[in-house]
Design brief:
Organism (chains A, B): Heyndrickxia camelliae
InterPro entries (chains A, B): ABM_dom, Dimeric_a/b-barrel, Jasmonate_Hydroxylase-like
Domain ABM (chains A, B): 32-83
Number of domains of chain A: 1
Helix content of chain A: 25-40%
Number of helices of chain A: 3
CATH topology of chain A: Alpha-Beta Plaits
Radius of gyration of chain A: 14 Å
Strand order of the largest sheet of chain A: 2-3-1-4
CATH class of chain A: Alpha Beta
Largest sheet of chain A: 4 strands, antiparallel
Pfam families (chains A, B): ABM
Order of helices and strands of chain A: EHEEHHE
Distance between the termini of chain A: 18 Å
Low-confidence stretches of chain A: none
Protein name (chains A, B): Antibiotic biosynthesis monooxygenase
Number of strands of chain A: 4
Oligomer: homodimer
Strand content of chain A: 35-45%
Largest interface: A-B, 41 and 41 residues
CATH architecture of chain A: 2-Layer Sandwich
Chain lengths: 108, 108
Amino acid sequence: MNGNKRTFQPPYYAVIFISQRTTGDRGYGKMAEAMERLVSKQPGFLGVESARDNELGITVSYWESLEAISNWKKNEAHKIAQEKGKQEWYQNYSVRICKVEREYSFEL
Amino acid sequence: MNGNKRTFQPPYYAVIFISQRTTGDRGYGKMAEAMERLVSKQPGFLGVESARDNELGITVSYWESLEAISNWKKNEAHKIAQEKGKQEWYQNYSVRICKVEREYSFEL
C-alpha cells in the first residue's frame, strides 16, 4: 500500500510498531496476511505502511481515535496474534501511540 | 541503531518520514551518512530508527520538542539535503509530525 499518495486530515493517531524478528517464518507470513485483511475492516482504521530490512521492521498504522486503537488491541483474533508474536516471531518490539499534529508531502 | 532497547519518557515528538526513492544512488548514501552524523549533534534530538525495502523507506526520528524539529528543518546543511532530495532522490515522500503519548515494549 502506498500511503504517500494518501493524506489524512490531522489530528488523527498513528501507532509506530518497530520490531526485530526471530529467525525463520514460523507461520508469521500467513498470520500477517490474515491480520491485514482483518484490520482493514476495523472501525476507525485509516491505513497502514510497512518497511522491513535485515535490521528492523517498521509498521505505522493510522487511526481516527485512541478508542479505535484500543478496540483493535482487544480484538480476539488480534490478541491471539499478539500472543504468538511474543512466543514465536519477535525478539523485541516497541509500540508508540502518537497524535499526528501536522503533515505534508512531496511528489515528483 | 536499535531503538527497541531505548525508550523515552512521553510526551515527546516523533517525525515519521515515508519515502519512495528514485533509481540509483545519485550521491544519496554519502549525504545520508553526513546527515546522520549531523543530526546526532542537534539539540533536542533523541534518536532515529529506519527500515527500507523495495517498496518503501520509513525513518522515524525522535525529538524533545516541536522547536527542536523546526530547528533541524532550518539547519543550512539539512536544507541543501532536502533540496537534493526533491531534485534527485525521492519519487515521493510524506512527513508526519506527531506527539508520542504512550509507549511500551517487549523483549525476549
